[in-house]
């Protein structure tokens, strides 16, 4: 499963401290999203490379088709409000 055009996907890999930090922070939000380990999903790894100048830079987050490489929690929340407000749980 690569990029979700309507939802949010967090691309990560094991051992990445930046991924652990963002994933932990997002767990305390009420957002609905999918997490994908790029080491287990070649299609997801290819998507990350396509938006990260050929690199497998993670975390990479796609919000309704808008990709962000190594975003902060604030950047993710802003993108959700702008592009996919339906992801915020009521």
TrEMBL record:
<dbReference type="InterPro" id="IPR051548">
    <property type="entry name" value="Grx-like_ET"/>
</dbReference>
<dbReference type="InterPro" id="IPR036249">
    <property type="entry name" value="Thioredoxin-like_sf"/>
</dbReference>
<feature type="domain" description="Glutaredoxin">
    <location>
        <begin position="9"/>
        <end position="66"/>
    </location>
</feature>
<dbReference type="InterPro" id="IPR002109">
    <property type="entry name" value="Glutaredoxin"/>
</dbReference>
<dbReference type="Pfam" id="PF00462">
    <property type="entry name" value="Glutaredoxin"/>
</dbReference>
<dbReference type="InterPro" id="IPR011915">
    <property type="entry name" value="GlrX_actino"/>
</dbReference>
<protein>
    <submittedName>
        <fullName>Mycoredoxin</fullName>
    </submittedName>
</protein>
């Amino acid at each position: 499963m690569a990029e979700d055009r309507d939802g949010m996907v967090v691309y990560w890999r094991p051992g990445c401290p930046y991924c652990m930090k963002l994933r932990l922070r997002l767990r305390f939000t009420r957002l609905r999203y999918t997490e994908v380990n790029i080491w287990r999903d070649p299609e997801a790894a290819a998507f990350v490379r396509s938006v990260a100048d050929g690199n497998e830079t993670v975390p990479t987050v796609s919000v309704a088709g808008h990709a962000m490489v190594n975003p902060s929690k604030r950047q993710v929340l802003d993108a959700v409000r702008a592009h996919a407000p339906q992801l915020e749980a009521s």
